[in-house]
Amino acid sequence: MFWLKFKPFLAGVVVLLLVSSFTVDVSAADPADCPKIIKREQWGALKSTNVTYQVMPVQYVVIHHTATVTCDEMPICKNIVRSIQDAHQSMNKWSDIGYNFLIANGGNVYEGIGWHRVGAHTRGYNSKSIGIAFIGDFSEELPTVKALRAAGKLLRCGVALGELDPEYMLYGARQLSATASPGDALYADIQDWDHFDASKRL
Question: What does the alpha-carbon distance between residue 103 and residue 126 come to, in Å, rounded to a whole number?
Answer without folding.
Answer: 19
